[in-house]
Amino acid sequence: MTAFTTETPARAASVGTAHTRVEGRDKVTGAARYAGEVPFADLAHGWLVLSTVARGRIRALDSEPVLAMPGVLAVLDHRNAPRLETDYAGLMGSRPDPTCAVFQHDRVPHLGWPVALVVAETSEQAREAAEALVVHYEQADHDVDFTGEHPDAYPLDGHAPAVTEKGDLDAALAASAVVVDAEYTTPEEHHNPMEPHAATARWDGGRLEVVDSNQGATWVVGELASLFSLDPASVRVRSEHVGGGFGSKGVRAHQVAAVMAATLLQRPVRVVLTRRQMFSLAGYRSPTTQRVRLGADSDGRLRALEHRSVSLTSTVHEFVEPSAGVARVMYDADAHHTANRVVRRDVPTPTWMRAPGEAPGSFALEAALDELAEGCGVDPIELRLRNEPAKGPVSGLPFAGRHLAACFREGARRFGWADRDPRPGLRRDGRLLLGTGTAAASFPAGAAPSTATATAYPDGTFTVRISAADIGTGARTALTLVAADALQVSPERVRVRIGDSDFGPAMIAGGSMGTRSWSWAITVAAGELRERLALGAEIPAEGITVRSDTAAAIGALAPAERHSFGAQFAEVSVDVTTGEVRVRRMLGIFAAGRIVNPLTARNQFLGGMIWGISMALHEEAVRDRASGGHVGADLAGYHVATHADVPRIEADWIDDTDPDDPVGIKGIGEIGIVGAAAAIANAVWHATGVRHRSLPIRPDRVIAAGASGV
Ligand code: MOS
C-alpha cells in the first residue's frame, strides 16, 4: 500500500476556507484542560500573599503561626527563597519585570507586590493560611498620581526610538490655515483574560516541567532558565490550552513562585492567580495623556504634525506605551514630531496589552484628524485620502502594501457614508441624538524566526509540531489549514500539536506575529517533507520527520514599512439627559494579509472592535490615591462591554495577500481594536457637537458636556 498520496491541487486549498476550531469539541465537552486543571499526583498548592501598603519595607512576617495551620507545608519569602539571576536579556532584549523575580528583597514598590507564598496540601488551606499571614511593614509615602502636569516625564525608547523629529514645527503650524491643538487622555485598562494565570511546576528526572498558561512556551523557558540559572534544555514548559492572554501572559510571579516551592518541597506545586491578584500582577495598559497638534492648509493637507504621549511606569521597571508611534506610520507632514515619555510612580509595571501604543495612540490621532476635518470643512475620509503618504513618514521606507484607501472606499460603500451630513447635532430619534464616525487603523505586520517539525506516518496521516500558543485566536486551526495546504492533503489528515517547548523554539503569540511566524516554519517543514515523500521514500513506523528553521529566510526580508490597515465605522445614539452612549452599528474593513480561516479571523477582528467599544465607553481602572490600590479590582468594579453593549457589528476584509510571506499572511490579532474608540468618539461628536477627548465617554461626562448645536 502506498502510504502517501497527494490529493488533487483543487483539494489542497484549505487556507481561506471557514473551519471550526479543531479543539472545539474538546473545549465544549471539558476534555480540554487548562493549566490550573491538569492533574498531578502529590500536588501541593501555593497562594501568593500581596502587600497591603503601596511603598515601604517588610519589617517582619509572622510565619510561625501560619506554619502551624492545617495542611501548611511552607512559607516562602525574601528570607528563605532561592536567589534569582535578574541581569539578563530576555525576550527581544528586554529585562524581566522584577515583579516576577519574587522574594529577593524586603522592599515594597507598590500595593499588591508579592511578599510571600504559602504552600499547603489544598488550595483552600493555602488560601486560608495566606490570608492569616500577618506582615508588618515600615510604610513610606507613596505617589500613584497620573493626572495633570508631568514635569518628571522623560523620553523612553521602546522597540522604537522615543523621539522622532523632522522639520520646524512652530513655523509649519504658524503657516497653517487650520490648526488643531488638543489633549486626549486614556485611563488605566486591564486585560483580564477569562482564564486566570496559572502554573504548576515540578521536577521530573532532573528536568523542570512547568504546565502553564502563557503566550509562548519558548519565552517562558528562556526566562525561567535565566532566572534560576538552569540550562534551557533542562526546562520544559507546556501550555496546551490558553484562555486568553492579550499581552499579559509572559513570565509572572506565579510561575517563579511555583518553581521555587517545587524546588524546596520536591513535589509538584500549583499557583493560580485570583481575579483580584491579576490587577496588580498581570500587567495592564498604562493610562496616557497625549497632545496632538495638527496644522493644515485649508484643503486639509498637513503641514505640521506633532504627537506627544506620556504614559506611566513603575519604580522597578521601565515600560513605555508607545502611543505616538502610530503617527510615524499614518500621516506625513513637512514638520513631523513624535515623542513617547514616561513618568515613574509607585504602581505595578504596565505591559503589552492588545495593540500596545496603537490602541490609545489611534484614539488621540484619529480623533484629532476628525477635528481637523471639521476645521477644514473636508469629509473625514477625504481628509485622510489627501494625506496618504507615499513612503514611511519617518523611516522613508516604501510601504509593503498599504491599502488604507481601499478599506475606506469599501467601508464607506457598505456603511452608507456617502449621504452623511457632516454637521453635528442634527439627527434625532426621539430624545436620542444620532451620529456616525470613522477612523483609520494600522498595526505592524511582522514575522519572527521559528522552528517546526512535520512528520509523515505510514497510515497517511501527518503530525506537525510547533511550540505555538493558541490563546483563543484559533491559531491551532489556522495552522492545521496551512499545514494541509503545504502537504497538499485535506486537514483531516493533519494533527497540529502546539504548546510544548520541547517542540523547539518558536515565536510567541504576540505582536500579531504568531500565526504568520508559525505558518512560515510549518510551510517550510511540510514542503520539504512533501518533496521527500514525492521521491518515493519508504515511511517507517516512527514516521519521517523534517525540521525547519526560518531564521535565515526572515532575516533576509528587505526593509520596508510592513503593516496591516483598516477603516472603522460606528453609529451611536446619545441620550444627553442620562448620558448614555450606545453603539448602534459598527463596521470594520481590514487589509491584513491573506485570511487563513475566515471564521476565526472574523472572530479576531470583532473581538478587537468590541474591545474598542469597551475602551470608548466602559473601561477604566480607578486608582485610590490614599491606598495606592484600585477601587473595585474585579469584574464587577471594572466595567467591560457585554453582550447588551454590542450592536450590529461586522468585520470584513479586502484582498491583501502579502507577497513576502509564503502563505501571504500579515497578522490580524491586534488591528481590530485600533481606531475603534476614535470612530465611536467621532460619532459622539457628530451626534452631539461636543468633543469627548477623555476615555471612557462615561454618562457623567456626557451629561456634564451636554450637547451643542441642537
Ligand atoms: Mo499582544 S499585546 O502582542 O499579546
What does this protein structure show overall?
By secondary structure, the protein is of the alpha+beta class. Strand 17 and strand 18 form a beta hairpin. The strands form 6 sheets. Strands 3-5-1-13-10-11-12 form a 7-stranded mixed beta sheet, with helices on both faces. Strands 7, 8, 9, 14, 15 and 16 form a 6-stranded mixed beta sheet that branches. A 5-stranded mixed beta sheet has the order 17-18-23-24-27, sandwiched between helices. The N and C termini lie far apart (79 Å). The protein has 3 domains: 139 residues, 2-Layer Sandwich (Aldehyde Oxidoreductase, domain 4), CATH 3.30.365; 316 residues, Aldehyde Oxidoreductase, domain 4 (2-Layer Sandwich), CATH 3.30.365.10; 204 residues, Aldehyde oxidase/xanthine dehydrogenase, molybdopterin binding domain (Aldehyde Oxidoreductase, domain 4, 2-Layer Sandwich), CATH 3.30.365.10. It contains 17 helices and 27 strands. Helix 9 packs parallel to helix 16, helix 12 runs parallel beside helix 13 and helix 15 crosses helix 16. The N terminus is likely disordered. The protein is globular and about 75 Å long. The site of dioxothiomolybdenum(VI) ion (MOS) has 10 residues, from loops.
